[in-house]
TrEMBL record:
This is Enoyl-CoA hydratase. The keyword Transcription does not apply. Pathway: Lipid metabolism; fatty acid beta-oxidation. The keyword Isomerase applies. Residues 572-583 have a biased composition (Basic and acidic residues). GO terms for molecular function: (3S)-3-hydroxyacyl-CoA dehydrogenase (NAD+) activity; enoyl-CoA hydratase activity; isomerase activity; NAD+ binding. PANTHER family: 3-HYDROXYACYL-COA DEHYROGENASE, PEROXISOMAL BIFUNCTIONAL ENZYME. Residues 496-600, 641-728 form the 3-hydroxyacyl-CoA dehydrogenase C-terminal domain. One of its GO terms (biological process) is fatty acid beta-oxidation. Residues 313-493 form the 3-hydroxyacyl-CoA dehydrogenase NAD binding domain. Residues 555-594 are annotated as: Disordered.
Length: 735
């Protein structure tokens, strides 16, 4: 960490450069040193302006040091911390202060820039207030200065989405005063543009953002903020659905309209401190660090001296639901894609899907027509009927039907036709990577690359290591996943890997409860209220009841085979076939044919709104009768439904860690947050198990249900859970 002040006597400016690699985090120490530097620069009567600039190669600032958040001020009222003191010093300076923004200014970094009298930036710089993503709000004046500078609408969008703005857009709304010219060394370019700004005759030192008038509006300030949030399509969740930070942000933004800015700043600080101590923010901060930890080289086992193949040309085999989305994801990462299908019709369908998504991005302004033309041009994206056209690729991702014989055949042919360095990956949901790798002569270069549907949108990719997979190959995939702006979690090979294996336990118990008489719609409502984006039966409809049935049949066949060879035991396990019977008996496939656990009407919500279906209730009554089951009386309580849904999920996650399939609780949590919608504000299933349920309570609950349902292996507590409780140890770290 360093702060260096340099005075340019000819230009009569002081340039204060600050460095705290890697992200120039505004630690308490750095803030104190910077404040001293700003104060001392003002002592020199010859100085006409102060430029604040990051040290060479560093971003302006990634914000406050989040690790220091763990020691919040003890008083309920905000303590004035070093960041706020620095901001006061900068804003009250007697000469103009200019923030020179290189790379990015996020969170506290942007709050410092907002307190400067002027802001200039490099054309590639990003500016944002991402605090809501950590369950917080800007706590050093961001919510008070931003509306004064850019108006309510832009301020609400920035604070509530947490998404950064590119430099040019920031200039357009008045957040940045001037953008430097590209093509020059950043420091020199920023200095040049900053001097133009301070030499402008209109420029004075008393341009203090906090004293700007607040734009008036016919509505009251809170209503104004709510209206703009709605207009921007921002879903402001209720506090009990993870929305404490969103509600706090609205409250603080509205306070910017108070006549005395001090009162607004005080209120913002109080809300910030309240959120800092909240369980929701603690969980979100854990998720923030977990996401970075699981994809780090160290966590992936990379030493740093491996030579990693750069993935530039990708082959995708199978252009159905997954393949077309996977092709788009690689195009987004800047790779060239060659897609292989079996028939010209199937190829045309895949092309149509890809072009349709590009067209919709252009329509929604997410891509320019020129970008789209390059993105899906013949040079970048081609279709073929021949696997031979993949011979020169760096990576092939297979996404054909979930059929082991078909996949083995394709891998044999790929192995023969691709150059030896090509990495071969499968998007299988459940099949063994080792069995697929065994048909090739390059098992070290064979892995699972498990995307989630829709593959171009869902952020998670499970990279499944086989026994022989090389770490360098995992590293190469992790790098391309990062280019896609997705999250890579490396997992071990087992039935369903991490995500689906946990899903199987969860779904099994849900169906058993339905057999006993629980209403699927009530279960959905309870789990939606728990925080999932949709209930599990809606989710089954989206994924397709036929898909689930096929996967289940294949898994059963494999298990039967294993039990006949003495490797498994199926005989005593309790299971339900209610979902299979529902789809078999009445041709219900889910959302895709408008009939599943719910009915779907094309005229309502584009055919995606789940509507209760009385014929499902009739089916369930007949189903139970045919099995000689009578609905339980008294019915299940909410508590029992929630425990029997969530506990098997948590137990399976712990078993997965115990077996080394996942390396840590963070891996499991990231998989379930990004792949299955587990509420991030509950920290993911492992964090939830430890910090909300409590490991001892979880063990007691599992034992209670294991005793009641001895034929349900998903209630038998993981050995690791028993060990941890016995030793009084934890499963995940708080941060
Ligand atoms: P899909 O039925 O939509 O598509 C499969 C495609 O593969 C079809 O277009 C078919 O024409 C093509 N195909 C079949 N044989 C081929 C061959 N020999 N050469 C080239 N193409 C061939 O299936 P999907 O849902 O996209 O699933 C594909 C894989 O992804 C499966 O292994 C599945 O388990 C897995 N997966 C699916 C999902 C999902 O939600 N659908 C999610 C994750 C993983």
């Amino acid at each position: 960490m360093s702060v260096a002040a340099e005075v340019c006597p000819d230009k009569r400016v002081a340039i204060i450069r600050f460095s705290n690699p890697p992200v120039n985090a505004l630690s308490k120490k750095l803030c104190t040193r910077l404040k001293e530097a700003v104060a001392s620069a003002q002592q020199d009567a010859s100085i006409r302006a102060i430029l604040l600039m990051s040290g060479e190669g560093l971003p302006f600032s990634g914000g406050a040091d989040i690790k220091e958040f763990d020691n919040p001020p003890s008083r309920d009222n905000a303590e004035v911390g070093p960041l706020s003191l620095l901001i006061e010093e900068i804003e009250s300076a007697t000469v103009p202060t200019v923030a020179c923004i290189h790379k990015y200014a996020f969170g506290g970094g942007l709050e410092v820039a907002l307190a400067c009298h002027y802001r200039v930036s490099m054309p590639t710089a990003l500016l944002g207030l991402p605090e809501v993503k950590l369950g917080l709000i800007p706590g050093a004046g961001g919510t008070q200065r931003l509306p004064r500078l850019v108006g309510w609408e832009a301020a609400v969008r920035m604070v509530l989405t947490g998404d950064p703005l590119p430099s040019t857009e920031a200039h357009g709304i008045g957040l940045v005063d001037a953008v430097a010219k590209g093509g020059k060394e950043a420091g020199a370019a920023l200095q040049e543009v900053a001097l133009t700004v301070v030499n402008d005759p209109k420029t004075g030192c008393h341009r203090r953002t906090i004293n700007f008038p607040v734009p008036s509006n016919a509505l009251n300030p809170l209503e104004t903020c709510q209206t703009f949030a709605k207009k921007a399509g921002i879903k402001v969740e209720a506090s009990d659905r993870g929305g404490e930070a969103f509600q706090g942000a609205l409250e603080a933004l509205a306070a910017a309209a108070l006549p005395d800015p001090r009162r607004g700043l005080d209120l913002e600080a109080r809300v910030f401190n309240r959120l800092l101590r909240s369980e929701q923010s603690k969980a979100r901060r854990y998720v923030f660090f977990s996401e970075r930890r699981v994809a780090s080289d160290h966590h992936l086992g990379l030493r740093g001296d491996e030579s990693l193949v750069e993935i530039r040309h990708v082959g995708v085999v199978g252009g159905g639901t997954m393949g077309a989305g996977i092709a788009i994801a690689f195009l987004d990462a800047g790779a060239r894609v060659t897609l292989v299908e079996v028939t010209t019709e199937a190829l045309a369908r895949a092309h149509e899907v890809v072009q349709g998504i590009v067209a919709s991005r252009v329509r929604r302004g997410l891509m320019s027509a020129a970008q789209a033309a390059v993105w899906a041009s013949q040079r970048r994206f081609q279709g073929t009927l021949s696997l031979g056209d993949l011979s020169e690729t760096d990576l092939v991702v297979e996404a054909v039907f979930e059929d082991m014989a078909l996949k083995k055949d394709i891998f044999r042919r790929l192995d023969a036709q691709c150059r030896p360095s090509t990495i071969l990956a499968t998007n299988t949901s459940t099949l063994s990577i080792d069995d697929i790798a065994a048909v090739t002569r390059r098992p070290d270069r064979v892995l699972g690359m498990h995307f989630f549907s829709p593959a171009h949108m869902m952020r998670l990719v499970e990279v499944v290591r086989g026994q022989a997979s090389s770490t360098a190959v995992v590293g190469a995939l992790a790098a391309v996943i990062k280019r896609m702006k997705k999250v890579c979690v490396a997992v071990g090979n087992c039935d369903g890997f991490v995500g689906n294996r946990m899903l199987f336990s969860y779904q099994k118990e849900l169906q058993l409860m339905v057999e006993e008489g629980a209403d699927p719609y009530r279960i959905d409502k309870l789990l939606f209220d728990f925080g999932f984006p949709v209930g599990p039966f809606v989710m089954s409809d989206i994924a397709g009841l036929d898909v689930a049935r096929r996967i289940k049949q294949q898994r059963q066949q494999r298990k039967l085979k294993e039990s006949s060879t003495g490797r498994g035991n199926l005989s005593s396990e309790r299971d339900s076939d209610v979902a299979d019977k529902l789809s078999e008996s009445s041709g219900r496939l889910g959302q895709k044919n408008g009939r599943g656990w719910y009915r779907y009407d094309p005229a309502i919500g584009k055919g995606r709104t789940p509507l209760p279906d009385p014929s499902v209730q009739t089916f369930l009554e007949n189903f139970r009768r045919s099995k000689g089951l009578t609905p339980r009386n008294p019915p299940h309580t909410d508590k029992e439904i929630l425990e029997r849904s969530i506990f098997p999920l948590l137990n399976e996650g712990i078993k997965i860690i115990e077996e080394g399939i996942a390396k840590s609780g963070s891996d499991v949590d990231i998989v379930w947050i990004y792949g299955y919608g587990f509420p991030a504000w509950r920290g993911g299933p492992m964090y939830y198990a430890e910090h909300h349920v409590g490991l001892a309570n979880l063990l007691a609950g599992l034992n209670k249900y294991a005793q009641k349902y001895p034929c349900c292996s998903h209630f038998r507590p993981a050995g690791l859970l028993q060990d941890l409780v016995r030793k009084g140890q934890g499963l995940v770290a708080r941060l």
